[in-house]
């Protein structure tokens, strides 16, 4: 039995509310169970120096957790003077995941920055950030297309992410914090709507896992991503 009482292949409730901030070109508040992330997308008419003049666009991301997003207050990284290794790793993951679903030639020489701020954490914050980040990015691109700044839709395929793992000896979908903190195996699966893999992060936390179990986790991830893509499409088409 999972601590939440969910079935092994059952996602937490997912909701995505769009247009939650006034100034960002694209924004949403994604809730995956008790994990809540505010995602905003900002369009700038510039690109990093390493692609300047190439005609290619760029999508990047920043990620952060608010001080009381967890059970005890954490110090703001700004006050420490630098980002932690986990933060840097996650925001790079978000950026390259979102870039996998966009045609940078069609985007044109501009940059879209997706900011993901965790308001409340209960496991799977990076997965929620990628899933919500795609919605914010989609909304920003729609604005570019509406005013004619982009002619051909650069969004090639929705991108979403979900966690899976081995908990109490059983493959489970969408780990919350009690499961994540006690899982024998923990993984994050980033995929496109068409089922293409972007990245898989798997690690044995307390026990090794078999090829058969990996296949089971892949099947669970595929199911979870399909459900998340449905939520994404419903949000951007509302």
From TrEMBL:
Name of the top EC class for this enzyme: transferase
TM segment ranges: none
A single GO molecular function term of this UniProt record: tRNA binding
CDD domains assigned: RNase_PH_bact (cd11362)
UniProt: phosphate binding residues: 86, 124-126
Top-level lineage group: Bacteria
Catalytic activity: tRNA(n+1) + phosphate = tRNA(n) + a ribonucleoside 5'-diphosphate
Domain called Exoribonuclease phosphorolytic: residue spans: 10-140, 157-223
Protein EC: 2.7.7.56
GO terms classed as biological process: rRNA 3'-end processing; rRNA catabolic process; tRNA processing
Keywords, ordered alphabetically: Nucleotidyltransferase, RNA-binding, rRNA processing, Transferase, tRNA processing, tRNA-binding
InterPro entries: ExoRNase_PH_dom1, ExoRNase_PH_dom2, ExoRNase_PH_dom2_sf, PNPase/RNase_PH_dom_sf, Ribosomal_Su5_D2-typ_SF, RNase_PH, RNase_PH_bac-type, RNase_PH_CS
Family: Belongs to the RNase PH family.
PANTHER family documented for this protein: EXOSOME COMPLEX COMPONENT, EXOSOME COMPLEX COMPONENT RRP41
Subunit relationships: Homohexameric ring arranged as a trimer of dimers.
HAMAP family xref list: RNase_PH
Function in brief: Phosphorolytic 3'-5' exoribonuclease that plays an important role in tRNA 3'-end maturation. Removes nucleotide residues following the 3'-CCA terminus of tRNAs; can also add nucleotides to the ends of RNA molecules by using nucleoside diphosphates as substrates, but this may not be physiologically important. Probably plays a role in initiation of 16S rRNA degradation (leading to ribosome degradation) during starvation.
The protein's name in its UniProt record: Ribonuclease PH
């Amino acid at each position: 039995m999972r601590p939440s009482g969910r079935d092994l292949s059952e996602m937490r409730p997912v909701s995505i509310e769009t247009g939650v901030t006034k100034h960002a070109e694209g924004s949403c508040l994604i809730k995956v169970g008790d994990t809540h992330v505010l995602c905003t997308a900002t369009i700038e008419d510039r690109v990093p120096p390493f692609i300047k003049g190439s005609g290619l666009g760029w999508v990047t991301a920043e990620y952060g957790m608010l001080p009381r997003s967890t059970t005890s207050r954490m110090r703001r990284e700004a006050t420490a003077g630098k980002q932690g290794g986990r933060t840097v790793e996650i925001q790079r993951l978000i950026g390259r995941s979102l870039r996998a679903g966009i045609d940078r030639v069609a985007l044109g020489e501009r940059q879209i920055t997706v900011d993901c701020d965790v308001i409340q954490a209960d496991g799977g914050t990076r997965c929620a950030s990628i899933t919500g980040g795609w919605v914010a990015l989609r909304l920003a691109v729609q604005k570019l297309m509406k005013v004619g700044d982009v002619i051909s839709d650069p969004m090639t395929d929705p991108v979403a992410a979900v966690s899976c793992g081995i908990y109490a000896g059983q493959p489970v979908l969408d780990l919350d914090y009690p499961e994540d903190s006690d899982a024998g195996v923990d993984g994050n699966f980033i995929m496109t709507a068409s089922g293409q893999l972007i990245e898989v992060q798997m690690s044995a936390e307390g026990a090794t896992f078999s090829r058969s179990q990996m296949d089971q986790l892949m099947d669970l991830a595929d199911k979870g991503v399909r459900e998340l893509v449905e939520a994404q499409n419903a949000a951007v088409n509302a």
